[in-house]
Specification:
Blueprint (H helix, E strand, L loop, with lengths): L2 H17 L2 E6 L5 H13 L2 E5 L2 H10 L12 E6 L5 H13 L3 E7 L2 E3 L1 H8 L4 H41 L1
Antiparallel strand pairs: 1-3, 1-4, 2-3, 4-5
């Protein structure tokens, strides 16, 4: 690969790193081509993208944004960019990891900081954006439902009391 293509690729990776909310460096060795295609589709559905890049180019791109890896990358590595949701695409990789026990996270990048494997695992335990929205809506609706029940309960009790009084007087 000529030097100009490598320079262009590094600048493209740097641009993707800057535009994404979080990034994971993933070892995908052992997955079949069909598994990788399926994983890419799931990642795309959740607002991300997956790209296979040479380790030296990944290292150079990370250095350009101010991140130095503690050790040299070895083995096949893919970059998973999370554009919409910080965690959603990474959870898809984690599902495959748990099901097939093949892929593994090497590092992650969040808000310009390097996440080691244990930090990335903790990061994955965070709920996705859609789950947080559902919890927020549920938290807002629940007190209103309870308030409506309280008002309805008092009215129902009043009606039942008046009915009992009218039946007793007849």
């Amino acid at each position: 690969m000529p030097a100009t293509k490598k320079i262009e690729k590094v600048s493209q990776v740097v641009e993707n790193l800057k535009n994404s909310k979080s990034v994971a460096l993933v070892q995908y060795q052992g997955l079949s081509a069909n598994d990788i295609a399926e994983l890419r589709a799931k990642i795309k559905e959740t607002g991300g993208s997956m790209e296979v890049v040479k380790n030296t180019l990944i290292t150079k791109a990370l250095k350009e944004i101010g991140i130095n890896l503690p050790e040299t990358l070895v083995g096949p590595t893919s970059l998973t960019y999370c554009y919409d949701d910080e965690v959603g695409p990474l959870k898809e990789i984690d599902k495959i990891n748990k099901a097939k026990e093949i892929t593994s996270f090497k590092y992650g990048v969040y808000e310009g900081k390097l996440l080691l494997q244990d930090e990335l695992t903790s990061f994955l335990n965070l709920p996705s954006k859609s789950t947080l929205y559902a919890q927020l809506v549920g938290g807002l609706v629940n007190p209103l439902q309870r308030l409506m029940y309280v008002f309805k309960f008092n009215q129902t009790q009043l009606v039942l009391t008046l009915k009992a009084i009218s039946e007793k007087s007849n």
